[in-house]
Amino acid sequence: MDLLLDIALLALLLVTAVSIAWIKDLFAAAMLAGIYGLLSAGFFMTMGAVDVAFTEAAVGAGISPLLILLTLALCGRYQRADRNRARLAMILVATVGALLVTATVDMPSFGDPDAPAQTHVAPHYIQESMAEIGIPNIVTSVLASYRGFDTFGEVVVIFTAGLGVLSLLMANASQSQVLREQSPVQQQSRDIVLRVVAKVLIAPIMLYALYVQFHGEYGPGGGFQAGVIFAVGFILYSLVFGLDAVHKVASHGLVQLLSAVGVLIFGCTGLLSFASGKNFLDYSALAGDPVTGQHIGIIVIELGVGITVASVMIMISYLFSAQLRDREAVLSIGNKNDPRGDSNPAAPKQPLEQGAG
Fold it and tell me: What's this model's pTM, rounded to 2 decimal places?
């Protein structure tokens, strides 16, 4: 039964991946990308990787399609045909695929009990994690303590990615205030059902994010998943009630500040351990009892991870939403100043279904 389920999931993953590469409707591709993330989460569940499945469901099937849709609102729904670029992409994908297949020849077989990971690393984590770290979720022990350097690097990468998006999309920030003052664009949704449903959902989303944040030691979850879920709540609020409304709750400047604060919390925890005579990110120095110190360190650095991930995701959504609002403001001001108005069918307008790519 498990074999049939794995075959079915892999077949659906293959069909979805081919459909994403083949289809020219980028909106449909975004929806298929969400389905691909959900199928991947199901496949990870069948393999027993619950934490990875949780992350894939939150990121791949949750926030990624939202950010892709915000991008499509700026660049257009349909992809322009470019045969030369398509050929180059196919050559690149085929080359990288061949290299990956070649590299798997030297890798041990999947599930091989004699593989180095099964004979050296995994046994120590499984047998000694509870005594050294004192928490039942071994995945959290590995990510937050044993492999703390790598997790710190991942948080820095997320922060750097946020800075990259910020530097790219803040180029026209000086025009934003003028456009907002002149624009008659209505940002808040007028759909009463959508607004009521959003008000009902946002509080449980935030509460669940807090649960995932502080329950990662005992079950699937942690800072990465909680940060994404927390960001989804703010993005939903922004989509339904408008960018100005969500800025009153968390301003753009506050979100930028918090994205750096999370990284500083993680790094300062390591420096505190270092200053106490232990290795960097050795949490046993944070308390008299090493296990208690591990608990404190993991809670603190997971909080930093959650703050950075949530802040960067919210910041990116703010930037895309502001760009979209400014573009709509330009179109609205142009139509307002055009004496022909909307009554002239020959008046040039920028369609949402313009070509992208």
Answer: 0.80
